[in-house]
């Protein structure tokens, strides 16, 4: 059973009788569909629909837990406090709690009240997080990165820059991280328009090379034009945020797609439902 203590994470605990309604009206995740023991991705957007903060949300007793980047925790607290007004909500940052991830856990015997199932991944993988407790003997972090890559699970800041991506760009709509049915949240109009018009042009795709990929941040190019950027890398596999219309154009024309100087193949994560756009000829 691989396991890893994640560095650079912090917890925001949101409690109080108005906690759920407060967050439901702000974040992209539909809390009405969040079961006990589940963890879902989410984001707080700006009014233009771009991601200011990303996190993983789960229930924590009578409140909610936001698992986020430690470097962003205080700013997220300040932003939520701006929206608080008279709501009966208490928000606190816990930057000391251990955040541990486990996967391929067949027995489930080690689960505790602080263990939640990460629904970004297929249920068969049994990817879980545990909060608190004692440190564990760690797996190589590359193994965790490789698992994320295999299932197209992007994370800031390595795969995209906060403030520069829409939820569709990072496939948040594919992994239960944004709801188009629950009603208003910050940035909802823009995100809903992208959904209904099918105008998402950037997506996270899986990158495969013949050998070890170049470093994170390397440009992805086709026809001597930059079409995206390489993010997480584990050996010959990685993630990239790319313009899928330009990827499709290169694929249709047989033009090589390069990460730096290396030819690569780009693919949609197998569990995701979006497709490459039609070409003008197909349309």
Could you please describe the fold and organization of this structure?
The structure is a single chain. With about 280 residues, the protein is α+β, with helices and mostly antiparallel strands. The protein has a domain at about 5-155: Probable tRNA modification gtpase trme, domain 1 (Gyrase A, domain 2), CATH 3.30.1360.120. The protein contains 5 helices and 15 strands. The chain has a 9-stranded mixed β-sheet, covered by helices on one side. A hairpin with a 2-residue loop joins β11 (about 220) and β12 (about 225-235). The longest helix has 12 residues, at about 75-85. The mean pLDDT is about 95.
Could you give the topology of this structure?
Elements: E1 3-6, E2 9-15, H1 19-24, E3 38-45, E4 51-60, E5 63-69, H2 73-84, E6 90-94, E7 99-102, E8 115-118, E9 128-131, H3 141-150, H4 188-197, E10 202-209, E11 219-222, E12 225-234, E13 237-243, H5 244-253, E14 257-259, E15 262-267
């Amino acid at each position: 059973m691989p396991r890893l203590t994640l560095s650079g994470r912090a917890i925001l605990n949101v409690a109080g009788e108005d906690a759920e309604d407060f967050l439901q009206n702000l974040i992209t995740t539909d809390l009405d569909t969040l079961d006990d023991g589940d963890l879902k991705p989410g984001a707080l957007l700006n009014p233009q629909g771009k991601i200011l903060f990303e996190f993983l949300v789960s229930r924590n007793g009578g409140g909610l837990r936001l698992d986020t980047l430690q470097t962003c925790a205080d700013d997220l607290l300040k932003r939520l406090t701006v929206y608080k007004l008279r709501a009966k909500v208490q928000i606190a940052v816990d930057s000391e709690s251990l955040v541990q991830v486990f996967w391929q856990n067949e027995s489930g015997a080690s689960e505790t009240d602080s263990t939640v199932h990460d629904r970004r991944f297929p249920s068969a993988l049994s990817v879980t997080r545990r909060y608190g407790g004692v440190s564990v003997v760690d797996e190589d972090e590359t193994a965790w990165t490789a698992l994320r890559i295999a299932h197209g699970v992007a994370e800031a800041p390595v795969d995209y820059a906060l403030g520069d991506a829409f939820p569709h760009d990072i496939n948040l709509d594919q992994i239960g991280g944004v709801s188009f049915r629950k009603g208003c949240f910050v940035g909802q109009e823009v995100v809903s328009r992208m959904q209904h018009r099918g105008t998402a042009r950037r997506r996270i795709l899986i990158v495969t090379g013949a050998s070890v990929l170049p470093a994170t941040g390397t440009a992805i190019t086709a026809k001597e034009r930059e079409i995206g950027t390489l993010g997480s890398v584990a050996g010959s596999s990685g993630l990239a945020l790319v313009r899928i219309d330009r990827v499709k154009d290169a694929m249709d024309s047989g033009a090589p797609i390069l990460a730096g100087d290396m030819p690569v193949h780009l693919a949609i994560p197998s569990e995701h439902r979006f497709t490459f756009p039609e070409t003008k000829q197909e349309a």
